[in-house]
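User: Hey, quick favor. My workstation is busy. Could you predict this chain's structure for me?
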Amino acid sequence: MIRIERILCPVDFSEPSVHALEYAVELGRQWNAEVELLHVLQPVVYGVGSSGTFTALEAQVWNEVTQAADQQLKDLAEKVRQRHARTESHLATGVPFVEIVQRARAREVDLIVMGTHGRTGVAHALIGSCAERVVRKAPCPVLTVKHPEHDFVMP
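Assistant: No problem, here it is.
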């Protein structure tokens, strides 16, 4: 028998990820499963000074970005918790698909529910698809949820 006890839902605060969160919450309610929201901050790498370290201003900006993302994630988790008490959140830093897969392994997640941005063609080739990489590397099933406003465009 299939038993779903832990659901991981990566969120980047975009419409597609919030739409996928609706699926995660409803599945969590139906299975009485824990739902964990995961937001991954990916540091932007650009030329660093000759010392190889961030300047004080860069560090301050990064801290502000981290604090803002953490607060936004906590606010979203609190909103979800009103509908499903078994909701947690986690903020990570790194490459999103790597962090998602590692978190799924570490937490022994039974299902990952995530949105897709619907990129195709050149945008898909240049940016890639986080969801596609997670599907290939995840230790558990992955439910990808397409946002209803993003239609498939035949290549």
